[in-house]
Structures are given as C-alpha cells and as structure tokens.
Amino acid sequence: MSGLILILVGALLCFAGSKSVRLAVLTAGFGTGWLLAELFDASTTVALVIALAAAFATLVTALLVSKSLFFVAGVVVGSVVGAKIFVIIADQPRDWLAAIVVVPAVALLCGWLTARWEKTFLRWGTAAAGAALILSGVGRTGVDGTDHLWRPESTVGAVLLAGLWIAVTVVGQRVQAGDAKGAEDQKKPAH
C-alpha cells in the first residue's frame, strides 16, 4: 500500500504538478511528509497522518504567504528532492544531522530558483519531486530487485537510482512542457 500511494502521488506531481501551484504544494507536502515518516520507520497509518498534516500545513502556509507563492511552492517541491538526495547520500538511514542540512538546503535553493523562474522551474521541480516519489514507491512495493529504488545500499544502486531519477524527471518535464505549450496554443486567437 505504501508504495502504491507514493507512485500515485508521484505521478500526479511528476506529470501535472505545474498545472496548479496549489496542487504542487499539496502533493509535494504530502510526499515530503510520507517520505520522511517512512525514513524513520513509521507505520502506514502514522505515515498517512503525517503526510496529510504536512500537505495541510504546506497549503495553509502557501495561502498565507501568497505573495511569495512560487517561492513556497519551490521550497515544498525542493523538500521532496532534498529528502530523496538525502536517501541517496546518507551513510546511515537515520542520520538526523545530514537530514537537517540536506533537506532544507535543497528546499531553499529550489524555492529561490522557482521564485526566479516561476513556471519554468516549477515544471522541472515538480517533475523531479514526482519522479523521486514514483521511484520510492516502486522501491517500496516489495518486488524483488527494486529495493535499491527506496534505499540504495551500494554505489551501483545509487548510480542506477540517480540515472532513473533523471530519466523520469526529463519525461515528466516534457509532458508538463507539452501541456503548457498546448494551453498557450489554445489561448492564441485563430488567424
């Protein structure tokens, strides 16, 4: 169940995340809460409660600071990316110090980049965050040979995960960019 939830939320974020900043904030907040809860071995019920609370908290925060909405959306999306980077680089799964440094640093960088380039970077950020959740979900399904997509235990597993993450990110960004181009074409008056 855990893997399926991550795959569904990840697909929504990866392939449609930039359609709505609120959708991006909700799904990324949910994904961040779920990933971090599972990293610390929470049960499915506890992970769901934490993920829902994180989604609600991020949406309320985004609404309260709507003038900075792109920054907040970027920070939340970046927190998913930061959590997955933490999973790849951490020596110990419960290395709190690395989590405290990596996740906020990547989140703030993504927030700044999204505030600067708005929808363009939001497409890339949501695609990367969604791809991270999709791959984490596949890794959590329990299918033989996919564990390295959740927590790689070797350099080869980490490199494979990074390569797949980049590939799914590019596909997600292209799907979103194609949707954005189609929406722009529909707005143009016919000649």
Protein topology:
Blueprint: H1 2-16, H2 21-39, H3 44-64, H4 69-89, H5 96-140, H6 155-187
Helix pairs in contact: 1-2, 1-5, 2-3, 2-4, 2-5, 3-4, 4-5, 5-6
Give a structural overview.
The protein has 191 residues and is an all-alpha fold. 81% of the residues lie in helices and 0% in strands. It has one domain (2-182). The longest helix is centred in the middle third of the chain and has 45 residues, at 96-140. It starts with a helix and ends with a helix. The mean pLDDT is 82.
Q: Compute the average pLDDT.
A: 82
- Provide the succession of SSEs: HHHHHH
**Tell me, what's the shape?**
globular
Number of domains: 1
Low-confidence stretches: none
Q: Structural class of the helices, strands and pairings?
A: mainly alpha
Keywords:
mainly alpha, single chain, 6 helices, 191 residues, globular
Short description:
By secondary structure, the chain is an all-alpha fold. It has 6 helices and no strands.
